[in-house]
Amino acid sequence: MSNVAQVSAEGRSISPGIDGGTSWQNPAFDPKRRSIFIPATKSSAIFTNLPADRVTRAANGYLVGSGSSQLDPPTRKVVAVDAATGIRKWEYVALSGPGPSNAISGLLSTEGGLVFGAAGGMVFALDATTGQEVFRRSLGGNTKSPPISFTLDGRQVVLVAAGRALFEFGL
């Protein structure tokens, strides 16, 4: 853990950055495969400690402490870990792009062995055992909410919100 007192006017590189790690988007659990699927972002940023009169807001609107700037575009991932040991099983690299609108939504795990998520206006499904992408569709709108699943007329469906629309996919 870094010491905040070491941040200076010149800045200090911190990883994960302001747009990194895992935070409010929900993970998913698969009891059959004993796996936890975590939406995460790999990033780094330079944080600076400046006098209040020299602080400016970044283009994306973030203002943390005195200021920060993203070093590289963030890498969006789904990380599967063993629920008992925490050992990484696989990692899926999703769509990348600047800004929080491309962050991975929360995740949904199904008993049939699929993990659903959305990022950058795309919905995707992964094989829960291998992390291989088995499905991807462009939805044409911002995707921030996690997919949900329920039974409709005797069949399982997955719903994904994108922009002002709701998309239904049958399993």
Q: Biggest sheet, in brief?
A: 4 strands, antiparallel
Helix-strand pattern, N to C? EEEEEEEEEEEEEE
Rounded Rg: 18 Å
What fold name stands as the CATH topology? Lipocalin
Brief descriptors of the model:
171 residues, mainly beta, Lipocalin, four-stranded antiparallel β-sheet
Write a short abstract of this structure.
By secondary structure, the chain is mainly β. 0% of the residues lie in helices and 43% in strands.
Describe the structure.
This protein is mostly beta strands and 171 residues long. It has a single domain, classed as Lipocalin (Beta Barrel). Helix content is 0%, strand content 43%. It contains no helices and 14 strands. It has strands at residues 12-14, 28-30, 35-42, 45-47, 68-70, 75-82, 88-93, 108-109, 114-119, 122-127, 133-138, 148-152, 155-162, 165-170. The strands form four sheets. A four-stranded antiparallel sheet has the order 2-3-6-7, with no helix packed on it. Strands 8-9-10-11 form a four-stranded antiparallel sheet, with no helix packed on it. A three-stranded antiparallel sheet has the order 1-4-5, with no helix packed on it. The relative contact order is 0.16.
Task: Explain the layout of strands and helices.
Layout: E1 12-14, E2 28-30, E3 35-42, E4 45-47, E5 68-70, E6 75-82, E7 88-93, E8 108-109, E9 114-119, E10 122-127, E11 133-138, E12 148-152, E13 155-162, E14 165-170
Antiparallel strand pairs: 1-4, 2-3, 3-6, 4-5, 6-7, 8-9, 9-10, 10-11, 12-13, 13-14
